[in-house]
Amino acid sequence: MLARRADGVTPLSSPAVLDLNAHVLPGIHGGTPDLPAAVAAVRTLLAAGVTAAVAPAVVGGNVAHDIAAADAARRDLTDALAAADLPLGLLPGAVVPAERLPDLPPEVLSTCTAGGGGRWIVVTLPSPGWPLSLATTVDRLALSGLGVVIAHPERAESAQMHADRLRDLIGRGALVQVAAGSLAGLHGARAEHTAFDLLRNGMVTVVASDEPSDTRSALDLGAAAATLERVLRRPREEVAWMLATGPGQIVAGERVRPPRLVPMPRDPA
User: What are the angstrom distances between the C-alpha of 129 and each of 43, 133, 157, 158, 218?
Assistant: First the structure.
């Protein structure tokens, strides 16, 4: 098990821990309205052992504008981190609402890929509702060499009520990212229950902070790793795939073949 530090953050000793979806950009994400708040959030990530993070744009009505604004905020935060000697690498990316995918051509979506790796797009589900064209869109993107990472589906009403809907997308090559805050119960009982249900059924690819807040328990990936160890009854070296190896492959634009990390049988009493 992982031991908590005096400041309440659980350090994760696995190498190259990468937060795939860190909402820490000043003025872009709701929980970090200014530079001091963003730096405070980064300090918590570093305390948990995170070495790099995708700090994404949030795509709205104007993709080019949204990405440019996030790029500017990322540069400002990078400069502030360098001045404070805080060694967190910030990577580009974007979070795209699933309902926007059919309207955006592949050449635009390629500018939104996680880490700038050119392959994986982080996508959010609406709540409530389910995009009826999502499966065919995932297939269409695959023909263009693009893949989809479904971010925090446990927080969407549609997935809470019918989590098996995600199986079809996973079968089509989609990946699933659960939020550390959901595992900590920060998004309500239904999100927490759904997150653990997805985890126990081997449907979770990676875990990220994915939280527009500097709340320690949301950004504490070390605590999330401890939860993964407990629920899956697997050693840290195996669950670290969800926090290090998997996110690393995604930002590198590699083809991802995640291990199916389901709970190990309990030892007989």
Answer: 36, 12, 7, 6, 26
Q: What is the identity of the amino acid at 252?
A: A
How far is the C-alpha of 53 from the C-alpha of 45, rounded, in Å? 9
Place of tokens 């985890």: 199
- Half-sphere exposure at residue 69, Cβ-oriented, CA atoms within 13 angstroms: 15
Sequence-separated (6 or more) residues with CB below 8 Å from residue 88: 42, 45, 46, 50, 51, 52, 53, 81
Which residues lie closer than 8 Å to 52 by C-beta, 6 or more apart? 16, 17, 18, 19, 88, 89, 90, 91
The tokens describing 226, both together, are 């401890």
C-alpha–C-alpha distance, residues 28 and 55, integer Å: 10
**Burial state string for 184-194 with b = 16 or more CB within 10 A and e = fewer than 16:** bebbeeebbeb
pLDDT by residue (tens digit) across 53-107? 999 999 998 999 999 999 999 999 999 999 999 999 999 999 999 999 999 998 8
Residue type, 23: H
Q: What is the pLDDT confidence band of residue 175, given thresholds at 50, 70 and 90?
A: very high
Q: Which residues pair with 75 in a beta bridge?
A: none
Q: pTM of the entire structure?
A: 0.89
| Closest residue by Cα to residue 209 from 17, 20, 4, 9 | 20
Q: Which domains does the chain have, with CATH numbers?
A: 17-249 (3.20.20.140)
**Which helix (DSSP H) or strand (DSSP E) does residue 11 occupy?**
none
Maximum Cα–Cα distance across the chain: 59
CA distance 191 to 182: 6
Amino acid at 238: E
